[in-house]
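Hi again,

Forgot to attach this to my earlier email, sorry! This is the prediction with hypoxanthine bound. I've pasted everything inline since the attachment limit keeps bouncing my files.
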Amino acid sequence: MSLKDKLQGRTPRTAIILGSALGDVVEIVRDPLVIPYTELPGFPVPKISGHAGKLYVGEVAGQQVAVLAGRAHPYESGKADVMRPALDQLKEAGIETLVLTNAAGSLKLSMKPGSLMMLTDHINYSGMNPLIGQHGDENFVPMTNAYDPGLRKALLAAAKKEKIALKQGVYCWYSGPSFETPAEIRMFQIIGGSAVGMSTVPETIMARRLGMRVCAISTITNLAAGIKGASPSHEETKREGQKAAGNMKRLLTRFFKDMKA
Ligand code: HPA
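Structure tokens for the complex follow:
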């Protein structure tokens, strides 16, 4: 049974994918229907710590939302399209808007750990693309305004109301799972990146292919490798990601409240 058949009459139009250590953000969902990924064919059962592997469907600020607590990353399998079955089922279930979240390292001293950064654009530095091997002209997906200008405006307005200093920037996708070298980080700074992480970009590409509107927010968990001597670790990502979860909850709750109005 696919997601559509398991919704028990619920009709979410927006989905959120939660990044590393942001699992607590599900607490904003009221009266959720909880479906383990193991019951959803093709949903990836996360193999790394910090990702729960459950789908929550319920209300946030009066709006029905589907929240994916946990994602699979291309570095777990080498497959850039590991989230395709999940995204296809979200689309089939009526999802029109996708809010992606992640943990990322900062490329700028002015963007400190604990900050939230809204993506304005991305750089795909992975050498992978989830649409490779798909056939048909529809796969030449335009990536101008991949991060929807209207949703970005709404996020900025929500942040202002909540007095959250939401940064904006360009996210670089690095395949991982090893972290970057300091030389790679210097390169990302030179080519116009603001933050670096190991997810989100393939999901954005597939969601745009499916015609969904996309926005994305990074929680900055660390300065990237070599900046002020930084040496990122997964422990740090989980710890610092949890600290930023409070602001992420407030930002998203306000975003949904005002989206409805
Ligand atoms: N690099 C890549 N991915 C990350 C980082 C980083 O510094 N921090 C959190 N996710």
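The chain has one domain: 10-132+145-260. The mean pLDDT is 95.

That should be everything now.

G.
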